[in-house]
Amino acid sequence: MPRDHPLPQLPFDRDTRLPETLMTTNPRTFAHAATGSPAGPDDPGLRAAAAGVTPGEVKVLRLLAGALTDKEVAGRLAMRETQVSAHALSAARRLGAPDRTTAILRAIHLGMISADALPPARADGRHLTRRQRDVLTLMAAGLTYQQIGNRLGIALATVSGHARSAVWCVGASTRHEGLLLALRSGLVTTADAWPPARQSSPAKGEAA
């Protein structure tokens, strides 16, 4: 990566994450909040919960999957930006996702919206290191940087640096857009929208 192109700080889209009070309202869908073992993509409770996602929420997720802003989505659907945010967070809650981006990946996995809604790929990410891919994969599951650091055994600042590099390599400027482009490029899959059950460990001989 050229040294004369310093990486910008990466927005984490904190306003798109569910409050802790919502993350524990449905014990079946949000079992991971209490047990640390998230429901997987084949969990029957997940599909039952997904059936409760409203058509309006699906429309919002479909447009957000195209990397549109809340303002752009609001304009297309003739609603307020606050309504867009509310629909996205409600859908995320029903899908057991910690944020709207992970909710979109889960919705695509469940066939609720088509992957065709994703933005066109801008870069193939071929220069990503294995550790950057690890971080990107855990970001797809909605884990925070601190949670990713705990799983991979690396410092928070290191996670942040890997995340910025990964997002930059796929041609994005935000975490949300970066994950959508990574999915389009095949760097992550919709199945990555659920955290792995076991903690990852650094590759032998590879620096964190």
TrEMBL record:
GO biological process: one example: regulation of DNA-templated transcription
Q: What is this protein called?
A: DNA-binding NarL/FixJ family response regulator
Domain HTH luxR-type, first and last residues per copy:
121-186
Give the GO molecular function terms. Answer: DNA binding
Q: Which organism is it from?
A: Kitasatospora gansuensis
Keywords, comma-separated and alphabetical: DNA-binding, Transcription, Transcription regulation
Cite the Pfam families for this sequence.
GerE
